[in-house]
Amino acid sequence: MRAALSLAGRGLGRVWPNPAVGCVLVSGDGSGRVVGRGWTQPGGRPHAETEALARAGAAARGATAYVTLEPCSHHGRTPPCADAMIDAGVARVVAAMEDPDPRVSGRGLARLREAGIKTECGVLGDEAAELNAGYLLHRQIGRPLVTLKLATTLDGRIATHSGESRWITGDSARMRVHMMRARHDAVLVGIGTALADDPELTCRIQGLEDRSPVRIVLDTRLQLSLTNRLVVGAARVPTWLVTLPGGEATRRRAFAACGVRIVEVAGGAGGYPDPAETLKALAEAGITRLLVEGGGHVAAALLRADLVDRLYWFRAPSVMGGDGVPAVAAYGVDALAAMRRFTCAATVRVGGDILEQYERKR
Q1: 120 is a catalytic site residue
Q2: Set 49, 51, 70, 293: catalytic member
């Protein structure tokens, strides 16, 4: 099952709105020989199970299948994986967890049992749930997993008072961020960051250039320049603008001509796109894993709404002082009880910087 989980991780950021699943087929002759491996392919299809079965061929008969999520039981663009396992003659299926999708939710395992296949469920279930946390949130509450990434000085500053921000952290930290992008469906910034930095928001690791996520900008008034790199590159890497309903029709047509998608959401505090409605709209578009990279007002809005699930904080060994720009803008904390609290999951050294990984405190 650990091997299957490792295979499943290959699909993160590439299979939305489907889950990233891994499957390992072990021979039924008692040798313990792996006869087939598979993982969800880009775009969400083919599924992991059918990939593993295809590789195993006739050797799948009598085998045990270790799969990180319950095999699907419904007809979509592909036949049910449960039926494929039955047809292949698999003798036993070990699943890490049930699929929360109401179209499946125990029905896949039930179909296998009805066909005489032995089933087990719950092996490394916590690890499987952690890997597919975005898919689970998407199916259970209708929003993506939100990871907030901050890169700051030791005292939490992201730029000088004049706006200079490149670069606070080192090359190794920035490379780690590129890898994070590769494992998320989309990356989001506010219009302030998009205008000030003119970022690409792509994965620029050699060999992984095709893993760039959807680029999303919160742009209430459609201020983004048509010459911004995000717009210029929209034909190559999907770019979405989240804005309020209405707006100037000429600007909308210009963005559409550049290949930019406009996503309308209801307004919230201060006349900006409401954070909860924004996540709901992104989930409806299929996004399950969202990486938020900036800026301070976007971070504050998500924290105020208690919508940050994971926090990745890169700290450079430097101190800027109180006249620097804070990583998180004010969001109305009048008492300690109102602070958002997290649990430290890991602390690692990344080049000359430190990466602290936090999870929402439950």
Answers
A1: no
A2: 49
